[in-house]
Amino acid sequence: MFHIFQYQPLRLMTQNSLSSMCLKLMLSRPVAFAQIWKSWFSSHSLLGKKNIILMGPPGAGKTTIGRIVGQKLDCPVIDVDDDVLETTWNMKVSEKLQDVGYEEFLEEEGKALLKFSASGSVISLSGSNPMHAAGMQHIKKNGIVVYLDVPTTVIMSRLKSMKMDRIVGLSPGISLKDVLQFRKQFYKRWFDIRVLCVGDVEADVVAEKVLDAVKRYQDSELETFISTRSGRSTEKNSHKLFFSDVVTQGLALDGGLFVPERGLPKFTAEEWQGLIEVTYTERAQVILERCIHPADIPASKLAEIIETAYGENFSCSKVAPVRHLTGNQFLLELFHGPTASFKDFALQLVPHLFAYCIPKSCNYLILVATSGDTGSAVLDGFSRLHDTDKQRIALVNFFPEDGVSPIQKSQMIGCQKENAWSVGVKSDFDFCQTAIKQIFTNSDFTGFLTVEYGTALAAANSINWARLLPQIVYHASAYLDLVHQGIISFGSPVDICIPTGNFGNMLAAFYAKMMGIPIRKCICASNENNVLTDFIRTGVYDLRGRKLISSFSPAIDILKSSNLERYLHLIANEDGQLVTQLFNQLENQGHFQLQKDLLGKLQQDLAAGWCSDEDCLAAIHSVYSTTGYILDTHTAVAKVVADRLQDRTCPIIISSTAHYSKFAPAILRALRIAEINQNPLSQLHLLSSYSALPPIHWGLLETLKKTGNGNHQVCAADMSVLMSHIETLIQNHFM
């Protein structure tokens, strides 16, 4: 009944073959076709002979939802409690628990599961089945495990109304809440896909969500990527790219940036509200599961990677806390990672995603261009890989030799490891970034490296799609924290103000808005390199006659904002031809102008302002004088712009993108210190004497102490010289 057609993954079964088969049946036997199609759909949704296995806490509705799903698919439904355990034991589950006790019950339950087998069915597990490893391994072999993720408060309310007092693990001194929290670790270990079940949602609605989730699980073809400089994929353009491909490839072959062909996933208001009470890592897990198909990275592996990234490497348990600054202004503190900037959020995560996605048979060299903070963050992140991964993954970080702060340079030197190096370039960031893009699109050079050394190149800059996803998480989390703190109710708007150079952080905030976070305006804050501000105000992106100005906020000393291309592709309705035209004109003529309708769309989403160095230092002094809190120079730029542009009708979240310790000379100058020692370590010791908030960064002092007289390579601003450096590093590390 369930296996009329042999199952093939949709990546193998072409749309043409499926359509042809259906057309022949429909024309020859229309009634039979309808029946066969229904059966095929059932079989296909169940992945052939596999089962849909519903898992979740007691009171999650597994039995009811299982029956509805089974009815919709016209397939057998098996409730483990009723149809397996009670049949095997010839007694009620509650009686068995009372008879043998907690530990023996789990063992007996697991043994019963090991003897059970089924195919083409919907199976509703007991709430305690996942606590028996061998039993779950057995049943998972032939099924897709769907986790019905119901908030603990909802479960407790349901169990109370059901008057259920026999829960495995519940005993004097152990509360129901403790039992439910303890079990979560087992649910997270086994599930393939998660279905958020929040609010008073009807069982029919949850059942549909289960079917949608299973369909997504089996059909990774739906989640492909395209270049910003091409249109949607067609049958003529049949080569499909998936998340694992774009993570490793970095930049599209046509010079564009990768974006998801069908856009980002949407969360309902109820689903977002279900994340208000959970931890940062749990929010990250749920959001990233929706953005990364399990065919690319399974949920259990993703959970492991997220825990590795954010579990112990951040000094604050909240990871990205939101702090009230003054009035209706709030700071999103993004500097609690190991290298003290917002780049840690992506670059503690991406190296592990990259290591999982790449083929094991090939070596990879990661190329990075940085205007400051990315350098130490990417070096630190890739140096934390497992030793076996370090042998096949190396990294070289190019930065403007004289365009970063002394402490940033010391960090980049101090973070070098056996598989990660820094190279200073006698130019500015725009040259470094453009050079990397040109290297990636130089097929002769990349082909030579592959053939001669078995080494492929990849990117870890914000041009890499995977870099943006963790940034979406912290913007969403900041909003949820304001709701949790009672500052706003869910649905109330907020503005976000971000110090912006390469537009990645700004783009991530806009993506969070698209996914359902009620962000009203994204405010772009520039320093004196205010090309973005001019563009957002006028629609003209003009680099003619502009020279990069060195400022006290070097991370946003950028004139060419790479991620702007992704945003323009989005508002231009994915018109790759237009995007290609605009950025070719920028490259060849130094400017482009948006059409009036696109400028109107842009100005609905974005606002912009800029801040001089003088105003930046004044803001640092003013905030410290009134609050005792020290802003870093980039956050101060955003603070000045927020003061000028906010209308005070809603809260504004200012992204605090780096710790002030990284820019000690400018901070000391802002605090009116007359004599400043040029030694970075002495500068930090002086700052620590102020006992300000936040305190000196936990890892920065240690890194600077290790740096000593560390060395790094310096090269001329010449493409052939950079390529020679790359080849030499490959020879030294991989050969």
CATH architecture of one domain: 3-Layer(aba) Sandwich
CATH C-level name of one domain = Alpha Beta
Q: Bin the strand percentage.
A: 5-15%
Class from secondary-structure proportions: alpha/beta
Main beta sheet strand tally, sense and closure: 6 strands, mixed
CATH superfamily of one domain: P-loop containing nucleotide triphosphate hydrolases
- CATH topology label of one domain: Rossmann fold
Which oligomerization state do the chains in this entry correspond to?
single chain
Cross-sheet strand order for the largest sheet? 8-9-19-14-15-18
- Radius of gyration, in angstroms, nearest whole number: 28 Å
Gross morphology is globular
Distance between the termini: 57 Å
Q: Helix fraction?
A: 40-55%
The parts where pLDDT drops under 50 for at least 5 residues are 1-46
Based on DSSP secondary structure assignment, what is the total number of beta strands? 20
Total of helices: 33
Mean pLDDT: 89
Protein name: THNS1 protein
Keywords: Amino-acid biosynthesis, Pyridoxal phosphate
Cofactor: pyridoxal 5'-phosphate
Pfam family, one: Thr_synth_N
Give a description of the structure.
The protein is of the alpha/beta class and 735 residues long. It has a domain at 45-218: P-loop containing nucleotide triphosphate hydrolases (Rossmann fold, 3-Layer(aba) Sandwich), CATH 3.40.50.300. Helix content is 49%, strand content 13%. The chain contains 33 helices and 20 strands. It has a six-stranded mixed beta sheet with strand order 8-9-19-14-15-18, sandwiched between helices. Strands 2-3-1-4-5 form a five-stranded parallel beta sheet, sandwiched between helices. A five-stranded parallel beta sheet has the order 13-10-11-12-20. Helix 6 packs parallel to helix 7 and helix 17 runs parallel beside helix 19. The longest helix has 20 residues, at 465-484. It starts with 14 loop residues before the first helix and ends with a helix. It comes from Donacobius atricapilla. Belongs to the threonine synthase family.
